[in-house]
What does this fold into?
Amino acid sequence: MTDHPTNDWDPRDPTVLEDQRAAYDRMRDRRPVAHSDFLGWSLFRHADVTAAATDHERFRSATRRTAVPNGMDPPDHTTYRAALQPAFTPEAIGRFAERCAEIAGSLLDRATREESVEIIADLVNPYAHQAVCAFMGWPVEDWNRVSRWTHGNQEAAFKRDREAGAALAAEFAAYVTAILEARRDGSEAIDLMGTLVRTAVDGRALTDEEIVSALRTWTAGHGTVAGALGLVIRALAEDIALQDRVRAEPGLIDAAIDEILRADGPLVSNNRTAAVDVAVGGRTIRAGDRVSLMWIAANRDPEAVDDPDAIDLDRDRSGNLLFGTGIHRCLGEPLARMELRVAVAELLRRTGRFEIIGPAQPARHVYPSNGLWALPLRLRARDPS
It folds into this structure.
């Protein structure tokens, strides 16, 4: 086993960015534990990713800056996650589902007046970011601002532009803090901001810094929701038989979303830090080294999934890593699932068919996202009979 990491690949290479999913498949098959200057160690196999994600003793999540709760390890992670969990109960998500349907319906009312539509610009981005504004308790008309933060943070992460990232973080913190000041008035509002100002940890109220940190994570997560929705719509537009089946059987929407995003995920990876020296796949990862868990490669690992390119709605979904696994499995998963389900259901209900009319391989985002920049569709009206 080597003690000296080599630069086995470059995730920023144009050939990788042209098709990240295919590039990660190649790495999983050729060098399943690889090192790069950009990502540190990358794990590509389902078994290795799952093992690291569920071993918080050897692979730590704690970060230097406050990151509630994702950038914490037990016992702090356990305490904060338990305090925040009530915001994502089935009751809380159920109350919000009708509002999401209203947002999706309003956007689709406008979009479906035309035979062709740019679905990313006209539905996906505004829906995901209007929904997060409504859930947070922010003015829905601020959705463009939220979208700009999301994409700006992705670009800053890719370019390692700390100055740009810090500026975006400061702007976001000022925005949230101003709203918090107005909300700390005993308001009984049931949106997320109202919930957070009433949330206590160890007998004290959450600080503004802690609330800003949690909201930064969840806001960024809605960039992933937008990426996921675009990928689901693309897959349904490419496979008309699948689209027709799910339209006829709406009870299959959740299975279709899970399976489509297993095969083509919106989020490339999450990070950990090795707490001790650990051997993985014949390589030595040293204590303190950065480790990237490559979700979209793991979810397409033929050792874990038969025929990983196939969209099989009857497939066992228990090993799907779309929302992670272990104690850091996405806290906002119920919200994301509901938002995706509602948007897909509304699109299917309001159309008879939709087909891609743009390039066969639409332009993709770059690391850490794998979403679509654009997706032109031809819409066919639903047969009134």
